[in-house]
UniProtKB/TrEMBL annotation:
Gene3D superfamilies: 3.40.50.1460. GO terms for biological process: proteolysis; regulation of inflammatory response. GO terms for cellular component: AIM2 inflammasome complex; IPAF inflammasome complex; NLRP3 inflammasome complex. It comes from Knipowitschia caucasica (Caucasian dwarf goby). This is Caspase family p20 domain-containing protein. InterPro entries: Caspase-like_dom_sf, Caspase_cys_AS, Pept_C14, Pept_C14_caspase, Pept_C14_p20.
Length: 83
């Protein structure tokens, strides 16, 4: 769990870690031991500057992206611009 912004999470002393770097570190090129193993990435961090309360008018607006490699799934706690 951390604070973040679109495309990054904050670490110690507000250092930014790009989410793409997490995927890169776990790629089959950099971590061949994980070939054909499921990789589940769960990121609990805000991703923008818009504060949104739970409830209200909820629309079905699924955003999907395909990873460059197989056996990856990423679960993010909010949409790209939400707190």
């Amino acid at each position: 769990m951390s604070h973040g912004k679109r495309g990054a999470v904050y670490g110690v002393d507000d250092d930014e870690l790009q989410i793409d770097n997490i995927y890169e570190h776990l790629s089959t090129k950099n971590c061949p031991e994980l070939v054909d193993k499921p990789k589940i990435i769960m990121i609990q961090a805000c991703r923008g500057g818009i504060h949104n309360a739970v409830g209200g008018d909820i629309e079905e607006d699924t955003i999907r992206f395909l990873h460059k490699e197989k056996d990856f799934i990423a679960l993010l706690s909010c949409t790209p611009v939400e707190l």
